[in-house]
Design goal:
- This protein is α/β, with parallel strands linked by helices.
- The chain has two domains: about 325 residues, TIM Barrel; about 90 residues, Alpha-Beta Plaits, CATH 3.30.70.
- The chain contains 13 helices and 18 strands.
- The strands form five sheets. An eight-stranded parallel beta barrel has the order 3-4-7-8-9-10-13-14, surrounded by eight helices.
- Strand 3, helix 1 and strand 4 form a beta-alpha-beta unit.
- Helix 3 crosses helix 5.
- The longest helix is centred in the last third of the chain and has 15 residues.
- The N and C termini lie far apart (about 70 Å).
- The structure holds flavin mononucleotide.
- Flavin mononucleotide binds next to strand 4, strand 6 and helix 9.
- Flavin mononucleotide (FMN) binds next to strand 4, strand 6 and helix 9.
Length: about 425
C-alpha cells in the first residue's frame, strides 16, 4: 500500500485529507469523530470575537437529481466562546497528537488583536494557524475576511503581523473573489506566509423564489449574497491552485487545496496540480465524515496502479501541463467518430452541432430512427457532440495522424515556421444574398 503521509511546512500529517474550517469543525467533539473516521487533519471553524448568525443560512443549486451541486451559505465565523474553543483544542490535541489541528483565525485588523489570539491558540496546542482572509459575506462588511484578501497590501501586512507573533506555521486562506489569484498569493508570500489555502467561497446568489421574489436563502423577507462551494466550484479551485503552483514567484510555497472535493479522484487532481494537503467542507456537510474512507482507499489503489510508493510522488505532475494558449500544438487534430452500434438515435449531437457549433453532423430520419454521421471535412474536433451524447463511449474523439509537425501559434507567427498549418474547414459560406 502506498504511503499517504505528507509533510506540509514541517507539519507531519498521516494523510493529505483535512477538513476545511466550517461547520464540520465547529466543535472538539466533531473533530474527534472526524479523526476516528480517518481524517488526517482539521482546520478549526474560524475563531475570533463570537458572532450571532441569522436563521436561515444555507441554500443550494440542484442539477438533474444531483442535490447540492452548488451550495451557498451566509454563515459567519464561530458563535462559540473563545474560552470553550481553546479548552477543546487542547483536549483534541492531547488525545490525538498524531493528527493535525490548524486553527483558523479572523480578528480586527490591528497587530495587538492578532498577537493576543495567536498566543492563545498556540498555548492551546495548535499545530498551525490559518488566517481567514477569504469569507465573502458578513465579516467582510466588518472589514475582515475577503475585505483583507482582496487588497494585496492588507494581506501582506497582516500576514507579517501574524508571522511576528506566531511560532507555528502560518497558512493564509485566500479568497477567489478577485481577478488574479497569483497577486494574492504573492502578497501572502511577501508577508512571510508558510503556506496558502484556497479557495474560500465564491460570491453568489443561488436563485430567487419566483412567488415571493426573494432570493435564497431567505431571512425574513430578504436575502444576502452568499459564499458558493461544493462540486460546482472545483474547476475554479483547480485553476487557482495550478496558477499559484506554476508561478515562479510562489514556487515551492506549500498549498492546501480546497473547493468541491468529494472523491479520491478530486483529491488526486488537486495534488497533481500542486496541492500537498486538501480540505473538504461541503461534501462532509452532505455525506458525513465517512467519505474519507473512500478517499483513502481510492487514492492508495490509484498510487499502487501507477507504481508510486508515496503520495508525494504525485504532487505537481500536472502543473507544467497547463501552458498558455499560444504554446498549444495547433497541428494536433482530433475528429469525432460515432459508434453506430451504441447510438440511440436521439439526435442531440446533431442539434447541438447544427445550432451550437459547426454543422458537422449529417442527419437522416429513416425507418423511425434519426440516423447521424460525422461530416469529416467540417468537423473541427471541438468535443461538443461527445459532451452532449448521453451514451458513454458512443462518440469518441480520435486523433488523426496527418503527418504535420508540432507547431505552436508562436511558431506559426515566426519567420521560420516549422511546417504548414493543417487546413481548417471553411464554415458559413453557404448563405448568399436573397
Ligand atoms: C457553511 C459554511 C461555513 C463556512 N465557514 C468558514 C469559516 O468559518 N472559515 C473559513 O475559512 N471558511 C469557511 N467556509 C469555507 C470552507 O472552509 C471552504 O473553503 C469552502 O466551502 C470550499 O470548500 P468545499 O467546496 O469543500 O465546501 C465555510 C463554508 C461553508 C459551506
Amino acid at each position: 500500500m502506498a504511503d499517504l503521509s505528507v509533510n506540509i511546512c514541517g507539519i507531519e500529517s498521516p494523510n493529505p485529507f483535512w477538513l476545511a474550517s466550517a461547520p464540520p469543525t465547529n466543535t472538539g467533539a466533531q473533530i474527534v469523530r472526524a479523526f476516528d473516521a480517518g481524517w488526517g487533519g482539521a482546520v478549526w471553524k474560524t475563531l475570533g470575537d463570537p458572532i450571532e448568525n441569522v436563521y436561515s443560512r444555507y441554500s443550494s443549486v440542484d442539477m438533474n437529481g444531483q442535490r447540492m451541486m452548488g451550495f451557498s451559505n451566509i454563515e459567519l465565523i464561530t458563535d462559540r466562546s473563545l474560552e470553550i474553543n481553546l479548552i477543546e483544542i487542547a483536549e483534541v490535541k492531547r488525545r490525538y497528537p498524531e493528527n493535525v489541528v490548524v486553527v483558523s483565525l479572523m480578528v480586527d485588523s490591528n497587530p495587538d488583536a492578532w498577537d493576543t489570539i495567536i498566543k492563545q491558540v498556540e498555548q492551546a496546542g495548535a499545530d498551525a494557524i490559518e488566517l481567514n482572509f477569504g469569507c465573502p459575506h458578513g465579516m467582510s462588511e466588518r472589514g475582515m475576511g475577503s475585505a483583507v484578501g482582496q487588497v494585496p497590501e492588507y494581506t501582506c501586512d497582516i500576514t507579517g503581523w501574524a508571522k511576528e507573533s506566531a511560532t507555528v506555521p502560518v497558512f493564509v486562506k485566500l479568497t477567489p473573489n478577485i481577478t488574479d489569484i497569483r497577486v494574492a498569493a504573492r502578497a501572502a508570500k511577501t508577508g512571510g506566509a508558510d503556506a496558502v489555502s484556497l479557495i474560500n467561497t465564491i460570491n453568489s446568489i443561488t436563485g430567487v423564489d419566483l412567488d415571493s421574489f426573494t432570493p435564497r436563502p431567505v431571512v425574513g423577507r430578504m436575502s444576502s449574497h452568499g459564499g458558493y462551494s461544493g462540486p460546482a466550484v472545483k474547476p475554479i479551485g483547480l485553476n487557482m491552485v495550478a496558477s499559484i503552483a506554476a508561478d515562479p514567484f510562489t514556487e515551492g510555497l506549500p498549498i492546501s487545496g480546497i473547493g468541491g472535493i468529494a472523491t479520491w479522484q478530486d483529491v488526486a487532481e488537486y495534488i497533481l496540480l500542486g496541492a500537498t494537503t486538501i480540505q473538504v467542507c461541503t461534501a462532509v456537510m452532505h455525506y458525513g465524515y465517512r467519505i474519507v474512507e473512500g478517499m483513502a482507499e481510492g487514492l492508495s489503489n490509484y498510487l499502487d496502479s501507477k507504481g508510486m510508493a508515496s503520495v508525494n510522488e504525485l504532487r505537481g505532475l500536472s502543473v507544467n501541463k497547463v501552458v498558455d494558449w499560444q504554446d498549444l500544438d495547433v497541428n494536433y487534430i482530433v475528429k469525432a467518430e460515432i459508434d453506430q452500434d451504441k447510438c440511440i438515435h436521439c439526435g442531440l449531437c446533431y442539434i447541438a452541432c447544427y445550432d451550437g457549433a459547426h454543422q458537422a453532423i449529417g442527419v437522416e430520419y429513416k425507418d423511425d430512427e434519426t440516423k447521424v454521421w460525422i461530416i469529416d471535412d467540417l468537423c473541427v474536433g471541438c468535443n461538443l457532440c461527445s459532451l452532449v451524447c448521453p451514451v458513454q463511449g458512443c462518440i469518441e474523439m480520435v486523433e488523426r495522424d496527418h503527418g504535420q509537425t508540432h507547431m505552436s501559434w508562436n511558431d506559426y507567427l515566426s519567420d521560420e515556421k516549422p511546417g504548414e498549418l493543417y487546413p481548417r474547414p471553411k464554415h458559413g459560406l453557404t448563405i448568399g444574398p436573397t
